Sequence to fold (159 residues):
Amino acid sequence: MKFIWTENGKVLTKTVYNADFVQWAKSHGGRWDPHNKVWGFDISKLLEVSWALYKYYSIVDTSIIDCVTIEYSAEKFEVYKTNHQTVIAVGGQIMAYRPRRDGPVVLSRSEIISGEFPPSGGSRYNPRVEANGVILRSSIPRLIYEKLSEEDKKEVKLI
Fold:
């Protein structure tokens, strides 16, 4: 499925509903096309729209946004989120999370290089990603990588 493309001098996007993206789209000159169920933007907004898709949906169009590939121990990037959920996050970008205690870990722009996540983790209200021994390979925008702290950069290997 294409999430972003250009056509007739417009940038078009087709995604699931996200109230924050709708607000962003309206404030950046986006026009909703109810017939085709797409948002349309002036072609000059291509990069901005690409970043918005990344921000609100974790969708990365690598033909537009320069990305790098990194490998790292997921355990080093466990983060406890305020919604009582433990996730794996690099540079503020969620790379892995478990939506339900007994559900599988969901990866975002990542793949497991070695190890495995337990089949369940945490409690019903506090699902947890336990990353002991898991090595992930992820794709992140170069700008996010460049903004990592020196400490975090020491924990990742640029591929």
